[in-house]
Amino acid sequence: MSQPMRTDEHVDERTARKAAEEAREAEWRLPSFGRRLFLGEFRLDLVHPHPRPGADDRARGDAFLAKLTEFCQNEVDPARIERDARIPDETLRGLRDLGAFGMKVPERYGGLGLGQFHYGRALMVAGSVSPAIGALLSAHQSIGVPQPVAMFGTDEQKEAWLPRCATRITAFLLTEPDVGSDPARLRATAVPDGDDYVLNGVKLWTTNGVVADLVVVMARVPESDGHRGGISAFVVDMDTPGITVENRNAFMGLRGIENGVTRFHDVRVPKANMIGKEGAGLKIALATLNTGRLSLPAMCAANGKWAVKIAREWSAERVQWGRPVGRHEAVARKVAFIAATAYAMEAVHDLSARLADDARNDIRIEAALAKLWSSEMACRVADELVQVRGGRGYETAASLAARGERGVPAEQMLRDVRINRIFEGSSEIMHLLIAREAVDAHLSVAGDIIDPDASAGDKARAAARAGGFYARWLPTLVTGPGRRPGSYAEFGPLAKHLRYVERASRKLARSVFYAAGRWQGGLERKQGFLGRMVDIGAELYAMSAVCVRAHADASGKGPLQDGGANANGRGPGKSALLLADAFCKQSRVRVEGLFDGLWRNTDAPDVRLARAVLDGAFTWVEEGVLDPSIPGPWIAPSEPGPSGAESVHRHV
Q1: pLDDT, average across residues 584-595
Q2: Could you give the CA distance from residue 198 to residue 458 in angstroms, rounded to a whole number?
Q3: Is residue 458 predicted with pLDDT exceeding 90?
Q4: pTM
Q5: Between 20 and 30 A from 96 (CA), which of 119, 243, 465, 487?
């Protein structure tokens, strides 16, 4: 039974916010280092000593990493993937035979049963040889069918699908041509019909959708008798009639990614294929992303580690004005930034992943901070690497090799890493998501005060509750261990940085309190303030992770060490403290700038100017150039692909 697609309908801001609010997890059942950090409580005990994998987990994970490393080094041709914009079938089969498609699938269902830590380390290996392979493995296991089924599926669903997930590729389908970060406007429908739902809609940017065997589809079930309705999650077999992959999309980077446009036309999906309940789709998606986002920090860390190697080698061998370029301060500062940030990105990922594996903490803020901070810093690292290599950084690896030089793909890294600021929540959306969680305590006590529909009595009672909360909380922000010179002494030269984090955490909490009092309900619209607030928290989290990691590495108790050595037999020793100290000094400069920007900025005039631009007040600025996206009259317009176009779905 065909259901016509709904025409675009207006969803007001309040409705959109309500949908997002209902999807988030409202309660905090477990401790959260990140949440306490925003409240001015530096709970170092939640992350120190650095959590380490258990012996069995480590043995299993290290054994797989050794096999994966050998395969990627000897069997994967990254230049071919970049040239052909496609991962060869034999490479995909090799990954499948290694068990790479089932890294996170429990052993009882035919997978490897790796924890988040070793899974992330595997993505570092695969992503370093080919970011397209890293993206394929991540989209399959971090947000594809395995994760939501493992978290929310019934025993029957796990038995039916997880064994397939261990050997087949899956995907996650949420985005639509007119719907990105605002799921309240989702247009795909799943209409109940007997024992099935009938699925209709179009999904855009379906990473892995071109090669997937199973997909998770988010679609709206209409409200009706016996059906609560709402956005729901369905597992769909891509061999089901009515599914067409209409286009394989191409991007500035990740040229081997299998990403397309998928159309569902009267696709019958058994009711047994719904994950969770009707209307629970967004909750499932957000919960899946809490850990799923950690795949991006893993691959950002891989980019950083490779950038250190290339920057070191080039800066030492390239001579200008009688000295290696790395000996000149202008380049030395870039090399120092790349090295320190690479160590920090690894520390942020590894700590966040181990917290996820321990399952004793609520890591929704930590995972989001790791994704946001790492994706932003990786772009800076890539840009600086290109600058360090100069013209050779801008030249493609293929061109370098063609004229007899080493084919270093620095410009490819810059293109590939850029998507991480957009994948799985853009930086702008991540700022808002983290800010909402960070100010949750304030909104909880001030709820009826800022609710325009609340009665005068409700507002009065809410004001009394808020007064009691702040009377207890504010005195804790006056002083703390960060003011005592001997605090955190076991960290040696890094103790001063932890004291700074503690002081800055309390200062951040005070700033949020002042902002809440100043703007009240309008705070949620002060996105410039909220963004800087979140960026401060992200830097403080990174500094904490680096100090804890360096302390563990220096004492031979890091997550990759066994009695003082890493997996490759070389321990960082005291050099980890030097690298951590350098990073913290760099980070503190950024934090001070962000604090200054909380109150001294051009946010308000910028917003006014933007409105004038949107209203057409400055179209004269656009004159004097041509728009290459508009073809001239001599160029025939492209023929739009018909809705019934032959599917480009590729079976592996």
Answers
A1: 98
A2: 45
A3: no
A4: 0.93
A5: 243
